[in-house]
Recover the amino acids of this structure.
């Protein structure tokens, strides 16, 4: 087994408060770089090369795309001093719901642990296209999203963030927008960066080493660039059983949203409870029903009377009721067996990257080149403490049951009892993920004269391979566990009751307390655990041409056209116990065992399956930019339009298009812009072909039997899926560097996105509830929660049935003051803000209502999110301040807020809750940093993130790392050099 280091009408109150806070921030710090010219830039030379603006294929001097684009340059990247550039970009307000090392830490089977992927507009990483130098990158997960951790970060000159649809220019996935990393392809010299960091709690120790060199040969016609980097982030591990967290963090209080299941007594149906205590298990075991209910066991196996919270008293009935406690939970009492604190707060991540580029100028402004990028990312996380098993049945005759408890069984006239345990004695599960990427690009680009005008071309072939290995350690085989805990005494020896299991190596397991034998541990948790081996390949051939074939009355007409072929493939193999011996043959490491299911799904979690899939895409596009106004009195205006035809091997042909324009008003510095587009997201390999992904649901509610059960959720692919279709519209106004206020820029852009045929699936709970309520009886065949022949399960599959509607606006502003108050240097003030007016998802299913997620702070789309920055720099030193804020929110906009004694009847779609319980506070973070030039070539720097050590909001889902920082104050420092 491989080893490596751990390391959503607006709510008036919230809106007014948000506007006030935003106004204050803009007055104090007007903000980010636009694609339009920077404040007071130096004059470009007459022979300056044309630039290509992300979001368009037009390539021409002075061209401005109609789609709003934010640019993050190298200076800002350095000022943020993050060990991974992903974090710097993910902080932008328009980026909502990106995944990183603080997300997916509860996961065993997703394969997304430690995966750094962007999400624009909260639409998810699968609807955000990420490019490297305008080129696609092979996915690091079967959903097709690349891992930013595998990019060559030291050579990145800038990052373009296109806040709008761009499918007609770049193809599928660019629904929310595009994030394009631009590297320095002409770097000369040697530069490097060495950095270390640690949190205020003494964890997440980080080391970053980066080095890059570039040199030209043969009269400056041959250019070679090489870079390498290594980063090791130790991460923040789990806390102990109970409510403690790593490093002494104290913000976790086991908050739980309890459903009283009483809808008509005038009180809220849903209530929040802190220090919630499950009545279904304890750390080392608890009898949970019947006449012996309430007897718990310590580590040595000795019985004691369990201390229920809420002054609860066990009813000692067959249902396991605890008088005085809400459904399934008490408050307070003995919480030492709680398991949620055992998840990693941040995955450990170790990454390594080597990048090289060799270019040859075979003629002026014409180059052929090859690039090679090899990267590796290793991550580790612990999903939870223990492997809790409620609702077990233990026979009183089990020799591991203490005699005093056997006597009580006899006195009560019972032969068995219901039992639950966290299984603390089995240890904690560890998940190791290892991604390796190999990416090769060969291309040519340049400029050639055609029919009297210069035309640009950009041709390339890309071949990418990504390998992802997932290994899970210390996890039990559920069916072996069930047989091992059913022990008897035979000929004076404690053995497993099942003779077939006994003949195949079954070792009796003592779960009364915390002292299992080593042999029993190895039987139920073999050394060789679940594994998954995935290979993904991507091949792209792309041809792009751009020129100005003629002029109109208002100026030159620009045209771009081209085509692309892309092939995506994946294959995944898993272990025999997870995938089944008929799919992956049993072998010496995973021998056949009649106690196990031949078709797999034998592990407690991590039941990976085999699968493969492939599709190809052929597409062609044309884009034009036509000047229509060019006069001193009316200004300058252009119309931009594009169309793309795409043919998918799986779902046929689909068209995308856009039409928009810009108008540079005859008012100094003002420009109008707008664009509307039809965009698509094609189903990815995972949605089409994925082998079943298994997720363990340890406390899944079974409404048929009014109990919590352990169940497995199987998510499977659907090859009949079709592309999602989006309509994306933006309109805005910008002010850039006016003569009456040199150095000032600002913009306002409104956006509206509607996506139809959204690929989605019913959640496991919805599937069961739709059957239970008979809203959708056809779902009743998709699950079994009382399965005598194997694990309880729910099958989840994707379909084109949902829709998403979101609307809002972005504000950006910046001011650059040179020699402020006569001081040498430059003062720069910047700010960005995004307001999500609505984000409505609608399944359209019977009995459901739309859900407006804007302002639901359990998700990724708060009502308001802004970031402000202030920096001062001169030749000797610099100082940097950054503020990050998002607004207060709620658990759900569909909940009906009411006070106790005045609540209406609660319904399934509109459950009642008190206003206090529905609220989730926002957060404000401040970061501070600075640099000092030791020599002109060597710079020392520091950075403190989350200066005030702000804890995440206390919520009932442990925490929400999509919005909140769970690490606390972090100190960073390092040295950069450039020769």
């Amino acid at each position: 087994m491989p080893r490596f280091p751990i390391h959503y009408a607006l709510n008036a109150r919230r809106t007014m408060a948000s506007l006030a806070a935003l106004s204050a921030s803009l007055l104090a710090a007007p903000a980010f770089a636009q694609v339009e010219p920077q404040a007071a830039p130096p004059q470009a030379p007459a022979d300056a090369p044309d630039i290509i603006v992300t979001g368009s294929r037009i390539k021409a001097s002075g061209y401005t795309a109609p789609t709003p684009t934010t640019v993050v340059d190298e200076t800002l990247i350095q000022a943020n001093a993050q060990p991974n550039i992903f974090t710097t970009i993910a902080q932008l307000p328009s980026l909502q719901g990106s995944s990183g090392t603080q997300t997916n830490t509860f996961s065993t089977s997703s394969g997304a642990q430690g995966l750094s992927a962007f999400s624009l507009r909260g639409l998810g990483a699968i609807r955000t296209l990420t490019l490297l130098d305008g080129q696609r990158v092979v996915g690091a997960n079967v959903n097709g999203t690349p891992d930013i951790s595998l990019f060559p970060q030291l050579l990145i000159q800038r990052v373009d963030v296109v806040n709008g649809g761009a499918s007609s220019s770049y193809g599928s996935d660019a629904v929310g927008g595009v994030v394009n990393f631009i590297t320095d392809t002409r770097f000369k010299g040697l530069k490097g960066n060495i950095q270390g960091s640690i949190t205020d709690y003494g964890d997440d120790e980080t080391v970053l080493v980066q080095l890059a060199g570039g040199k030209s040969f043969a009269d400056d016609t041959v250019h070679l660039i090489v870079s390498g980097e290594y980063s090791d982030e130790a991460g923040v591990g789990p806390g102990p059983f109970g409510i403690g967290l790593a490093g002494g963090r104290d913000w976790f209080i086991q908050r739980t949203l309890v459903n009283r299941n009483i809808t008509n007594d005038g009180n809220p149906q849903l209530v929040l409870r802190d220090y919630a205590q499950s009545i279904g298990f304890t750390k080392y075991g608890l009898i949970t029903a019947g006449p012996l209910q309430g007897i718990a066991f310590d580590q040595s196996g000795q019985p004691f009377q369990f201390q229920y919270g809420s002054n609860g008293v066990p009813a000692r009935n067959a249902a396991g009721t605890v008088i005085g406690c809400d459904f399934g939970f008490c408050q307070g009492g003995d919480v030492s067996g709680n398991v949620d604190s055992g998840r990693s707060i941040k995955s450990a991540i170790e990454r390594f990257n080597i990048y090289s580029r060799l270019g040859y100028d075979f003629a002026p402004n014409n180059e052929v080149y090859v690039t090679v990028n090899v990267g590796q990312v290793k991550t580790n996380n612990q999903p939870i403490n223990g492997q809790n098993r409620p609702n077990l049945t233990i026979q009183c005759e089990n020799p591991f049951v203490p005699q005093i408890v056997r006597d009580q069984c006899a006195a009560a006239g019972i032969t068995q009892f219901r039992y639950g345990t966290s299984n603390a004695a089995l240890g904690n599960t560890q998940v190791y993920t290892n991604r390796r990427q190999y990416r090769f690009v060969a291309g040519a680009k340049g400029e050639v004269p055609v029919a009297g005008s210069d035309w640009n071309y950009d041709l390339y072939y890309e071949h990418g391979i990504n390998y992802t290995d997932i290994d899970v350690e210390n996890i039990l085989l559920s069916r072996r566990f069930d047989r091992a805990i059913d022990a008897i005494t035979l000929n004076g020896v404690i053995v497993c009751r099942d003779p077939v299991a006994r003949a195949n190596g079954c070792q009796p397991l003592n779960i009364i307390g915390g002292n299992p034998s080593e042999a029993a541990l190895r039987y139920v948790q073999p050394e060789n655990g679940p594994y998954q081996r995935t290979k993904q390949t991507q091949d792209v051939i792309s041809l792009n041409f751009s020129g100005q074939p003629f002029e109109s009355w208002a100026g030159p007409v620009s045209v771009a056209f081209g085509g692309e072929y892309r092939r995506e493939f994946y294959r995944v193999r898993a272990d025999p116990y997870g995938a089944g011996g008929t799919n992956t043959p049993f072998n010496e490491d995973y021998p056949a065992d009649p106690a196990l299911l031949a078709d797999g799904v034998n592990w407690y979690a991590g039941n990976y399956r085999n699968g493969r899939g492939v599709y190809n895409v052929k597409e062609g596009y044309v884009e034009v930019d036509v000047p229509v106004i060019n006069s001193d009195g009316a200004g300058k205006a252009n119309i931009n339009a594009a169309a793309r035809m795409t043919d998918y091997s799986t779902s046929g042909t689909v068209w995308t298009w856009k039409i928009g324009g810009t108008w540079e008003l005859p008012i100094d510095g003002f420009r109008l812009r707008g664009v509307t587009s039809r965009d698509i997201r094609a189903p990815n390999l995972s949605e089409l072909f994925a082998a079943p992904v298994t997720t363990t649901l340890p406390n899944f509610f079974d409404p048929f039997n009014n109990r919590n059960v352990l169940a497995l959720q199987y998510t499977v692919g659907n090859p009949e899926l079709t592309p999602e279709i989006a309509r994306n519209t933006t309109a805005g106004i910008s002010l850039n560097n006016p003569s009456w206020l040199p150095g000032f820029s600002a913009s306002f852009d409104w956006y509206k996105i509607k996506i139809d045929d959204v690929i989605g699936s019913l959640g496991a709970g919805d599937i069961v509830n739709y059957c239970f309520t008979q809203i959708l009886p056809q779902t009743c065949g998709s699950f079994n929660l009382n399965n005598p022949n194997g694990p309880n399960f729910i099958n989840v599959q994707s379909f084109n049935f949902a829709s998403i509607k979101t609307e809002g606006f972005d504000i950006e502003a910046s001011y650059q003051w040179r020699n402020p108050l006569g001081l040498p240097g430059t003062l720069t003030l910047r700010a960005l803000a995004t307001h999500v007016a609505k984000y409505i998802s609608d399944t359209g299913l019977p009995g459901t209502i739309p859900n407006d997620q804007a302002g639901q702070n359990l998700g990724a789309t708060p009502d308001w999110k802004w970031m402000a920055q202030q920096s001062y720099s001169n030749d000797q030193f610099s100082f940097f301040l950054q503020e990050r804020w998002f607004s207060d929110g709620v658990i759900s906009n569909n909940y009906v807020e009411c006070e106790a004694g005045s609540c209406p009847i609660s319904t399934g779609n509109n459950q009642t809750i008190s206003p206090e319980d529905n609220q989730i506070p926002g957060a404000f973070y401040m970061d501070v940093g600075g640099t000092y030039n030791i020599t002109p070539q060597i710079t020392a720097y520091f950075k403190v993130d989350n200066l005030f050590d702000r804890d995440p909001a206390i919520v009932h889902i442990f925490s929400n790392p999509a919005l909140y920082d769970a690490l606390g104050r972090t100190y960073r420092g390092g040295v950069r050099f450039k020769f």
